[in-house]
Write a structure and sequence with these properties.
heterodimer, A: Rossmann fold, Rossmann fold, B: mainly alpha
């Protein structure tokens, strides 16, 4: 090789190097690393699948990009256990350098993961955990915490008011004996009694109870209706056993008692039961119809609120990233950007107040009918009333609401129980 | 005693290597190692009962739980244990573990074998029930978040520094329990394990021996709980649940009962498989299950029994050599 040809080679090599770098650099800058925690083994594995599928579907529909950034999506299994969730969240932040972590199922997991967001200074988006206080009395403790779906009591304040307006005077509540159950029943009872109704008895079967034989005979005969909050397999058993015992009065249910995760497995005994949530697969909007059809085609089942919640979470991140100019700006700024969003979600219009969504709450009745052009008559949560713009404080106002203690087994007190 | 010295030397070398390798690994490895060490302390405390006294306890999570809840409640409600008084909390934790064991021991020690297993299981579940239902104190199902680690000169928010703290407690536990089992008291525990009746005939108060061993195991269980509250940052009924007791039992069996370090090895393997493998493959549970089954089938003395088995196999193949007797875990007093 002559000297001149070698001299000529240098700029070519340099040019190539620059070109190579310039091709690499922007791709690297626009990567968004998202960690996702869901139970993929154990008793909640199927719910975990619904959660992951919802988020993954949004990514697939948008070419694996959120707000222009290519997403590195890492899913970790917490087996539905809070301790494991903490380990996995730290793994996502430390090993995978995740810029945010999303998910968790149970309220206790939410409480476990929120402190991790503090210690690792990383954004945590609770797409499912609904523990009230994380965005209420303890909100100031966790500045990197954001919620995209609901608080436990949020849909049940309107449901309490609705039940009262239907003319129910006396209601017996029966709910799973843990924090989520207390908050759901608390929300219902508060709104129901403020409107003039009376909760005359509260029963607490343990979480996971499948035999309601000991509880059903205790239900007081002078009640106009039963309010139930069941989770998972409990939700299948309770209405069935109650109807089999010959109970004819209305059953009203908390969000998870009749959601689409459990509904297709229910028999005709559930027809006519009413529940409330921020999502129903039977919302008759073009957007939801398209979502249900696409989801059902892809995963072979009707989307549950677990799927919709995580689909919408991806949408929230997408729109926030667009506002941030396609580059993740750090947790403080990102929380602020998300808080200012107004989005058109599958479940309806959503905006945020105190890092928690303000949205439609749907009062839904289980009906057997044909929907969205599907040939068979199936059980659907048909919407019978919509309460728009419901916040976590309902109509009480933030200050007044936060002055009362968090809903618990003993609050609101059961004044009308004997 | 030379073989004993070699063993001690080997353990010391492994520990020194651990203290060097772990802090230079990735943050996630440090995190897992810290967690494994806390459970190693719990497993070793259980080994005193299972391996040295022959009492299979399924309630060790109770002491772990009260230690953890005590730490969490003191830290969040009274702001105790977040400075130098952390060392006081360590002592309180051991005392409350010991006190609970002293209470439970009154019920449990009268039984043995499966009955002992069932009684400790029931007592452990009582503690779980309390943690789950005593909402005002324990936060119920949601548990208590311990957001701050103690600050006394060391920066314990740094996971590597915190690892060394836990490591120090681990070594403290290992040495204390080793001294205990080598003492005449420890020897008589082994005697009770081998043949309780004979020990009674020899004039030993076996009930008292077992009771004291139970209390000591409770104290170290409480210690591991104190550390867990700060390691995990969350104490919930899940901490006290039956699976924690079962995990500890499996760790001891996996590593080798009656060897102390076996519990630590078991803890490392369980954490390695459960927490690390689960980030790589979805079928990690089968691997963990397979390891358990294979250990029970082929290594009833646990992984620590491997050298003895190798020696045995060598002895069998080498016809000229004297057949080596299977190594006894502890000498049997007669």
């Amino acid at each position: 090789m002559t000297r001149t040809s070698r001299k000529r080679l240098v700029p070519i090599l340099l040019g190539g190097l620059v070109l190579g770098l310039s091709m690499n650099a922007p791709a690297k800058a626009e990567e968004l690393r998202i960690g996702f925690i869901a139970p993929l083994t154990g008793i909640f594995a199927q719910i975990g699948k619904d959660m992951t599928n919802g988020f993954q579907m949004y990514l697939d529909e948008h070419g694996n990009k959120l707000g222009g950034a290519t997403v590195k999506f890492v899913v970790e299994d917490d087996a539905g256990k809070a301790d494991a969730a903490v380990t996995k969240a730290k793994k996502l932040v430390l090993s995978d350098k995740a810029q945010m972590f999303i998910g968790g199922l149970l309220a206790s997991t939410g409480y476990a993961l929120a402190p991790v967001s503090n210690s690792e200074k990383t954004l945590y988006i609770a797409s499912i955990p609904a523990a009230d206080d994380l965005t209420q009395r303890q909100a100031s403790k966790y500045p990197y915490f954001f919620r995209t779906t609901w608080t436990s009591s949020q849909p049940h304040h309107p449901l309490g008011k609705w039940a009262c307006e239907q003319g129910h005077k006396k209601v017996v509540t029966i709910a799973a004996d843990y924090a989520f159950g207390y908050e759901v029943v608390g929300g219902f009872q508060k709104a129901f009694e403020d409107c003039g109704g009376k909760v005359i008895q509260k029963l607490w079967p343990r979480l996971g109870e499948k035999d309601f034989g000991p509880f059903i005979p205790q239900i007081k005969g002078d009640a106009d209706a039963v309010f139930s909050l069941m989770v998972g397999p409990m939700a299948l058993q309770f209405p069935k056993q109650l109807r089999q015992s010959g109970y004819k009065k209305p059953i009203i249910g908390g969000g998870t008692s009749y959601d689409e995760f459990i509904l297709p497995n229910m028999g005709d005994f559930a027809i006519g039961d009413v529940s409330a949530l921020q999502y129903s697969a039977a919302i008759e909007t073009p957007k939801n119809e398209a979502f249900v059809k696409a989801y059902r085609k892809k995963y072979g089942k009707v989307p549950s609120y677990y799927s919709e919640a995580n689909y919408t979470t991806a949408q929230v991140i997408d729109e926030a990233m667009k506002k941030a100019g396609g580059k993740y700006p750090g947790p403080e700024k990102f929380v602020a950007i998300m808080g200012g969003l107004k989005i058109d979600a599958v479940r309806g219009p959503v905006h945020f107040e105190d890092r928690n969504p303000v949205q439609n709450i749907y009062i839904k009745k289980v009906e057997k009918k044909k929907m969205f052009g599907y040939p068979k008559a199936e059980l659907w949560n048909v919407i019978i009333k919509t309460y728009p713009n419901v916040s976590q404080y309902w109509t009480y106002g933030k200050d007044k609401f936060l002055k009362q203690p968090v809903y618990s087994r003993t609050y609101p007190p059961c004044k009308n129980c004997e | 005693m030379t073989s004993q010295k070699i063993k001690i030397l080997m353990v010391a070398v492994v520990l020194a290597a651990l203290a060097y390798i772990v802090p230079n690994s990735s943050s996630f490895v440090v995190l897992l190692a810290t967690r494994a060490l806390v459970f190693a302390i719990l497993a070793m405390s259980l080994d005193i009962l299972l391996g040295f006294t022959g009492l299979p306890s399924l309630g060790q999570a109770a002491y772990f739980g009260v230690g953890a809840y005590l730490t969490a409640i003191l830290a969040t409600k009274f702001h105790i244990g977040l400075g130098w008084d952390f060392w006081l909390v360590v002592i309180y934790g051991m005392l409350i573990g010991a006190a609970l064991a002293a209470l439970f021991g009154l019920f449990a020690i009268r039984a043995s074998g499966v009955y002992f297993l069932m009684i400790t299981l029931a007592l452990g579940q009582c503690v779980w029930g309390l943690a789950y239902r005593w909402n005002s104190l324990t936060g119920g199902d949601n548990g208590i978040s311990v957001t701050a680690r103690p600050a006394f000169g060391l920066d314990l928010t740094n996971e590597r520094t915190f690892f060394f703290l836990v490591f120090a407690f681990f070594i403290f536990t290992l040495i204390s329990l080793y001294v205990l089992v080598q003492s005449p008291f420890g020897r008589s525990l082994a005697g009770i394990r081998e043949r309780e009746l004979r020990m009674q005939i020899l004039g030993y108060n076996t009930w008292l021996h077992k009771y004291i061993a139970f209390i000591i195991a409770g104290a170290f269980g409480g210690l591991s709980g104190v550390l867990w509250a700060h390691t995990n940052g969350l104490v919930s009924p899940e901490t006290v649940v039956l699976t924690t007791s079962v995990d500890a039992l499996l760790m001891v069996v996996l590593g080798g009962a009656g060897t102390l370090v076996g519990g630590a090895i078991g803890s490392a393997i369980v954490f390695g498989l459960r927490e690390y493998l689960s980030t790589l493959v979805p079928w990690w549970q089968y691997v963990l299950g397979g390891v358990y089954v294979l250990t029970i089938l082929y290594l009833p003395t646990g992984l620590m029994g491997i050298p003895a088995r190798i020696r045995q196999a060598r002895g069998a193949s080498d016809k000229t050599a004297k057949p080596a007797a299977p190594e006894k875990l502890a000498p049997t007093p007669s």
